[in-house]
Amino acid sequence: EQGGQKQEFQAEVGRLMDIIINSLYSKKEIFLRELISNASDALDKIRFLSLTDPKVLGEGDQSKLEIRIEADKEAGTISISDTGIGMTREDLMNNLGTIAKSGTSSFLEKMAKEGDMNLIGQFGVGFYSVYLVADSVTVVTKHNDDDQHVWVSQADASFTVAKDPRGNTLGRGTKITMKVKEDATEFLEEDQLRTLIKRYSEFINFPIYLQTTKTEEVEVPDEDAEKKDEEKKDEEKKEEKKDEDDVDVSDVEEEDESKEDKDKPKTKKVKKTSKEWELVNDTKAIWVRSPSDVKDDEYNNFFKSLTKEFDDPLDKIHFTAEGEIQFRSILFIPKKAPSDLFDKLQTKQNNLRLYVRRVFISDEFDDLMPRYLSFIRGVVDSEDLPLNVSREMLQQSRVLKVIKKKLVSKALDMMKKLSEAEENAIEAEEEEDKEEEDKAKAEAAGKEEKKEEDKEEEEEEGESEDGEEAIKKYKDFHESFGKAIKLGIIEDTKNRKKLAKLLRFESTRTKDGETVSLSRYVKRMKEGQKHIYYIAGDSKKDLEASPFLEKLKKRGYEVIFMTDPIDEYAVQHMDEYEDHKLMNAAKEDLKFGDKEEKKEKKRREKAKENLKDLIEWYKKLLGDKVEKLVISNRLTTSPMAVVTGTYGYTANMERLMKAQAL
Ligand code: ADP
Ligand code: MG
Fold first, then answer.
1. Ligand 1 cavity residues, CB under 6 Å
2. Nearest atom in ligand 1 to 123's CA
3. Which residue has the least CA distance to atom 16 on ligand 1?
4. Is 441 exposed, middle or buried (0-12, 13-18, 19+ CB in 10 A)?
5. Residue 457 CB neighbours (<10 A)
6. Are 174 and 141 in contact (CB under 8 A)?
7. Looking at ligand 1, which residue's alpha carbon is closest to its atom 10?
8. Torsion on CA atoms 452, 454, 455, 457, rounded to nearest 10
9. How many angstroms does the Cα of residue 20 sit away from the middle of ligand 1?
10. Which residue, 38, 207, 352, 572, is most buried by CB atoms nearer than 10 A?
């Protein structure tokens, strides 16, 4: 297969390349982020294998796990090499070109709509971002299980793969060389490269070296003066050269310093250039640092590099677990849920990266978080787990169970804080509104006390800004992950109480866009109200018109609207909240347990007597279309309503079951 046969890119990959090549996207630099991230992944893979079999690392340079980046201005190329796992011939064919991954088409779709090239890494097609800056790409790669191969593509919808005629020069790993396009030559500049590598390698746990060129002026002896000793020196120089592999001395002689020359040699100044490898990144993991030393910006950037997300996270928690089992962790709540969050929750995805003493082990553990919390992203670094243990063994390890429990409790803490901040902000707002109202009243009554209040108002302004932020933050959180919390209520018996505090609902008392928590509902319950009332249905608007609300409205009781399909399932798993029963207003035996109810009971008995004939007549008319006909106390203005029996499904449940074919 010398020269390699031309292969066509799979059609979708071809289309993807077209889009990228012709993209007007200005942040072309992201290609470097993607290539560094791929190199780092490849290094993680070989390091993981080496845990059980150290021999896979080999000897010499290839045993050092690192990334090297160099630019050649004359040739117009940038290369990035790693000593990672490498690719076999088959890997090359599969990973770079022929088989379209599912990511390709979803990325194409997304690009057609919003067109944010920055997201390319999320779709598993980051490699192709090289075509933002390159018009031809060469990948040389050596995997332990195969000979070294070369993949070449000219950005013309075809590529070649061939065995490398130079042999296995890499030892192990991958070297990607890009011929830079004319409008991207800025990336050949050392300073530019250094800045970008710094930006995109901040959280890479392998050293990244950039090749730099040093130019120095040095004084060297004048040629003529040294002519006599030429032959002798030539020999000595050869020896020296061996030690100075990368040093390129302009064609002048060097002074032989070892020789003590009595008569002063004539010298001249020349420029000497040499290549050096400069370590660009700091490989100390961010989670190992003390939280007080890490700036918000650093957390945000870490989150972005970890998740390939574009937005900052909504919140984070960074902690060290001490005691019998030690680990460090940073957990994040993303700002937005993926559009297919619910499917993802069902299939359970793990979004935590597990490290053991700084060595990346896996991001595919099922057992670090319960599935309802799988939207949490982050890292866990254990001190106790053995490095060279199989995944199956890890799965059953007691250490892992302890870690899981702690992670869940920390994740819930983080959400609790968000939730409480929102509730406090709302309370403060309400108080403020009330004060203003009182003031307005007082002013109207002509008793104003002006001066002092001006100052106070200013202070409150600042507070309410924070408050607004807290409210907005929680709203975002609940909109994105409310469903996950409800799934948690169904599945996580132990944490049900904590989770219930995180719920928010619209109600008969919330204004548009507002919600209420169960705690606030309970706080503002009417005197004498015993239970929490809810009603489930399609939308607030529909439910507001429900005849089931009449009696409750008359009493001035707040009724929660459950408009999310999962609400009614979740609520079945929580009989009560803070000792108040949750009552479905659409069920037959609606109980109030208050004084009013006793009065009503009497009235109803009277009505039963009076309406006996009417009931008989209706019974004949409706036959077995209904289970029974009763005089009810639940209506005030509507003459009659069809309700669900205590043990029957509500109309809303029936609607849901039909929709989901449960
Ligand atoms: P992703 O990294 O999300 O899988 P990419 O398009 O960035 O998607 O890379 C595609 C695949 O190509 C990788 O999954 C990996 O198998 C392979 N690959 C890319 N770069 C390297 C590399 N430096 N070493 C080994 N394999 C690589
Ligand atoms: Mg990638």
1. 34, 38-39, 41-42, 82, 84-87, 95-96, 124-127, 174
2. 3
3. 95
4. exposed
5. 11
6. yes
7. 95
8. 120
9. 17
10. 352
Q: Which of 17, 41, 49, 143 to mutate to test the pocket of ligand 1 (most atoms within 8 A of CB)?
A: 41
**ipTM of model over 0.85:** yes
Token code pair at residue 341: 């969050």
Series of mean pLDDT values for 10-residue runs along the chain (662 residues): 73 85 86 94 93 91 95 96 97 82 77 76 86 95 97 87 95 97 95 92 92 88 69 65 54 51 73 92 90 95 88 96 93 86 64 88 82 93 79 76 94 97 92 88 71 53 80 95 94 95 96 94 92 92 87 90 91 90 83 76 81 85 80 72 69 68 45
Q: From the CA of 13, which ligand is nearest?
A: 1
CA of 41 from ligand 1 middle (Å) equals 8
3-state helix, strand, coil in the chain (%, to 5): 45, 20, 35
Contact 532, 581 (CB under 8 A): yes
174 is in an annotated binding site: yes
- pTM for this entry: 0.74
Q: How, if at all, do strands 327-333 and 315-321 pair?
A: antiparallel
Q: Which helix (H) or strand (E) holds 226?
A: helix 223-226
- Interhelix angle 398-444/451-491, rounded to 10 degrees, is 150
Q: In the numeric block, which tokens belong to residue 372?
A: 């309802």
SS3 at position 146: coil
Strand partners, 72: 77
Cα(621)–Cα(640) distance, integer angstroms = 15
Cα gap 39→378, rounded to integer Å: 20
